[in-house]
Amino acid sequence: MLSKGYVLGKDALSKAKSFDETHQVSASATAKVVSLGKRIGINDKISAGAEAVRAIENNYHVSEKTMSALAVAQQTVSNAGTAVVNSRYFSTGALWVSGVLSKAAQAAADLGSKGPT
Predict the structure, then answer these.
(1) Which own/partner contact pairs does 98-101 have at CB distance under 8 Å and 24+ positions apart?
(2) pLDDT for residue 1 is more than 50
């Protein structure tokens, strides 16, 4: 079954390629995109935008500052997580939940051992 689907897919691909070669759909679309790009001047605008980003990076070192801020934030989150885990309230809550689950498991086991009445 899979092999038939593969053959069908391969046949469809070759038919599409043949259609494109006959009607020049890809070439026409590419030419229109290039023409539109030249008319709008999109390449120049993208280049100017990239140059502006490079200038800002060179002047303000945004990437370096961002990475530094992320490192500080990561350390802060790590410290907060450690504080929560080491907290007396967290451990008390965890013991309480553990006790409740143990009692629920025991009740289920007792109910299961009695069977239907």
Answers:
(1) none
(2) no
Tokens standing for residue 42: 């999109």
pLDDT band of residue 5 (cuts 50, 70, 90) is low
Encoding tokens for residue 70? 């992320």
Specify the amino acid at residue 32. K
> Which structure tokens are listed for 107?
């009740």
CA distance 53 to 47: 10
Cβ distance 84 to 90 under 8 Å? yes
DSSP letters for the chain: -HHHHHHHHHHHHHHHHHHHHHHTHHHHHHHHHHHHHHHHTHHHHHHHHHHHHHHHHHHH-HHHHHHHHHHHHHHHHHHHHHHHHH-HHHHHHHHHHHHHHHHHHHHHHHHHHH---
* 102, pLDDT greater than 50: yes
